[in-house]
C-alpha cells in the first residue's frame, strides 16, 4: 500500500486543524491597543496549540518517512491520532475564552495526553508492520521523551485544579522538549 496518500491526507487534516484554530480568534470591537488585551488568553492558547500541531506534523512526517510499508492497521491508527488532534481546536478555544479556567486547562491536558497515546499507538503499529529492525524501531530506541510526555501531561492535568498557570507551564515544557524535530530518524538514515 502506498504511504503517499496517507501522508497527504494527514497533512490536509492538520492544516484544517490550524485553520479552525485561527478562525476562533475574534476581531475586537475597538480601535485602541487595549481592545486586544481581552484576546491575550485566546492568543496564548492558540500559539501553544499551533506549536503542538506543528510538532505533531513534523514528527508524523519523519515517522511516516521511515515506514517502508503501510497497511490497514496503520491507516486506522493514523485516523485515531487525527481524531484526538482534531479536538485540540475545541480545547484551545474553551481554554482561551475562559482565561485558562481549571476545567478547560485539564481538558486541554487530557486531549494532549490522548494525542500522545495515539501517536505511540501509531508508532508501535508501524514498527509491528515494518519489523523490529526497521528504521523507526532503531530510531526510537528507549524513547525517553515519549515515555516522559504522558507523565508530564498527567501532572499538568492534576495541577490544573490547583494552578492552571502551573499546568500550562508543564504543557509548555513538554512542547519545548519536542520543539526540536526528532533527529533520531534522520540519524538512522545517515548511518545507513
Automatic annotation (TrEMBL):
Q: Where does the record say this protein resides? A: Membrane
Keyword Ion transport belongs to the record: yes
Q: Where are the transmembrane segments?
A: 12-29, 35-55, 75-94, 100-122, 151-180
User: What is the protein's given name?
Assistant: DUF1211 domain-containing protein
Q: Which UniProt keywords apply?
A: Ion channel, Ion transport, Membrane, Potassium, Potassium channel, Potassium transport, Transmembrane, Transmembrane helix, Transport
Q: Which domain of life is it from?
A: Bacteria
Any one GO MF term held by the record is:
proton channel activity
Catalysed reactions listed for this entry: K(+)(in) = K(+)(out)
Per the record, its GO cellular-component terms are:
membrane
The topology of this chain with respect to the membrane is: Multi-pass membrane protein
Task: List the InterPro entries.
Answer: TMEM175-like
- State the family it belongs to: Belongs to the TMEM175 family.
Primary subcellular site in the record, as a coarse category: membrane
Amino acid at each position: 500500500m502506498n504511504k503517499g496518500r496517507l501522508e497527504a491526507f494527514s497533512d490536509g487534516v492538520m492544516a484544517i486543524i490550524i485553520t479552525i484554530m485561527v478562525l476562533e480568534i475574534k476581531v475586537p470591537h475597538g480601535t485602541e491597543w487595549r481592545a486586544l488585551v481581552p484576546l491575550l488568553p485566546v492568543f496564548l492558547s492558540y500559539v501553544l496549540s499551533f506549536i503542538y500541531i506543528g510538532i505533531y506534523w513534523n514528527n508524523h512526517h519523519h515517522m511516516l518517512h521511515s515506514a517502508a510499508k503501510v497497511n490497514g492497521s496503520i491507516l486506522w491508527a493514523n485516523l485515531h491520532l487525527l481524531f484526538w488532534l482534531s479536538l485540540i481546536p475545541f480545547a484551545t478555544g474553551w481554554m482561551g475564552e475562559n482565561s485558562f479556567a481549571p476545567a478547560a486547562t485539564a481538558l486541554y491536558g487530557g486531549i494532549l495526553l490522548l494525542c500522545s497515546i495515539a501517536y505511540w499507538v501509531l508508532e508501535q503499529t508501524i514498527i509491528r508492520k515494518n519489523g523490529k529492525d526497521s528504521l523507526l524501531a532503531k530510531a526510537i530506541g528507549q524513547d525517553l521523551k515519549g515515555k516522559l510526555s504522558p507523565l508530564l501531561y498527567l501532572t499538568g492535568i492534576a495541577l490544573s485544579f490547583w494552578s492552571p498557570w502551573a499546568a500550562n507551564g508543564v504543557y509548555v515544557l513538554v512542547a519545548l522538549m519536542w520543539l526540536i524535530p526528532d533527529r533520531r530518524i534522520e540519524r538512522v538514515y545517515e548511518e545507513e
